[in-house]
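Purpose: get a first structural picture of the assembly so the mutagenesis plan has something to point at.
Setup: two entries, given in the order below. No constraints added.
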Amino acid sequence: MPTTLRLFAALVAAALAVPFVPHLIYPVFVMKVMCYGLFACAFNLLLGFTGLVSFAHAAFLGTAGYVTGALMIRLGSHPLGMPAAFLAGVLAAALAGLVIGGLAIRRRGISFAMITLALSQVVSFLAVQLRWTGGEDGLQGIPRGSLFGLVALSSDTAMYYLTLALFAAGFLFVYRVVHSPFGRILQAVRDNEARATSLGYETDRFKLIAFVLSAAVAGAAGALKALVFQLVSLNDVSLHTSTEVVLMTLLGGVGTLFGPLVGAALVVGLQNYLATLGDLVTVVIGLIFILCVSFFRRGVVGEMLHRAVPRRRPGAQARSRPAQAASPAEAA
Amino acid sequence: MPDITLQSALAQVTIGLIAGCFYAMLSMGLAIIFGLLNIINFTHGAQFMMAAFLAWIGLTQVGPWLGMPEFQIGFWPALLVAPLCVAALGMAVERLLLRRLSHLDHLYGLLLTFGVALVTEGLFRHAYGVSGQGYEPPESLQGPVDVGFMLLPKYRVFVVGASLLICLSTWYAFERTRLGAYLRAGTENPRLLQAFGINVPLMITLAYGFGVALAGLAGVLAAPIMQVTPLMGGSILNIVFAVVVIGGLGSILGAMVTGLGLGLVEGVTKVVYPEASTVVIFVIMALVLLLRPAGLFGREA
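Result (structure tokens, whole complex):
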């Protein structure tokens, strides 16, 4: 079994124990970290392994959250309600990804990023205007329903294990994609798009598929988050959330599989820890952003891998790529 | 269609025109910065907000701070001082932080300016809260003015006139003068320009300062019209980003024409179908992206 999977198995095993030691580590906090960790993994599939910058990921998180939440409010008591609402949320996010990605993919670089940003504004605008999204109030008191009518999810422990299972499934899905021939093509597109084109790959099509996959996984995180916290708010679809996921990914290590998880844990932990500071939390997050971008671009996991794994191709990767940490990460 | 008089329709269109002036100034600043630094300046909204706040602080806070309740920095000095202060801060950030990233992927510059925006907005929120502060226009610009077919507030006429003047002279400077030729050459091939003996790093710093000063000017002009609040930058920047996408990234003419045009479209929509007025810009954006992905004035890459 590859090192990454063994490490992940150990991580999941440790997470299994969390509900038994609530005085040591609060399960709801871990659920939040898992939701945002999955979200950051989805984002990193695009930024780290495909080289695309998206500012629309909050739109996918939020779309799935709203769809799942609205469906649960209507058919939450049905035995199949929860799985159906979850799937519908994921599908809605994938669809939003298809539309936004399809429009943005026609431009490169910073234009691509700007188009995803502008289109995600449309989504947050719709979230305010549409009736079923609850406007300024968002959706509150979303029922968690049950798993096929067998396990009631109203208990935090049941919900915790469901979150852990879905989180692990999402992470393994991203792992599978990255380590598949398809993932290799994505990385080829990231490293040298012209070369990938000359090898006969329709790079735009691969980028679009990656975009939709990433949107779907971000959607899974959003649907999960709506169930765990039983609310969806405008903040979920805001530019703020889109940039937060960039920070998580950057802080943990772009293009590494564990980086986004570490980054999510750090940012969520920081927000919980500093909540009493009020508006100054934004200032602290902003300063971390600046420091991270200026001095610490490899991120925590990227830096660790950089030190642990001797570089196979010294100086090969142009240092200007956002996914600079990728090559040692693949060795792990 | 609601029953409307010509008067109120024209009033809405004027409001749209004023919004368009702000969009045009902000997106021109973004275009200039994008042209030379190749980054999207996410701090633009915060810089706009900061200038409006500096104007407000000059009018209402400075006197008490100095123990001289009578002392205030009025609108006219603020129109010069606030943009200069904001531009100076911006240039310091460019020199100290942005420059270090210029050889990296443009994503990093964008993220850094975003971090600076977070810090700025957070500090203002912490100091002044999110409720809006009022700002009175100077006495000489209060009251209505008769423009022939209707009465308009003097201040709004002034804003439209002033920002059109600023936009046109910026466009002229960039597209029709030797200085502008250098700047455009700098966006094409900075090393060659440097070989001709031009101090390109200084030029980049000054261009950044100028783009920021445009945002600052817009901020001071906006202070008497909008509520001065830490949130004002973020909310207008959302629309300005859409304007930039529609106009084409980095095109100065595109920024000006699209900004004004979309403000007008927004105003007209408010008359015809008020519910759609905020979404119309995004509908236009989606259409433009489908037909011309590079934007109306952008070059196909």
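Strands of chain A lie at 139-140, 146-147, 151-152, 231-232.
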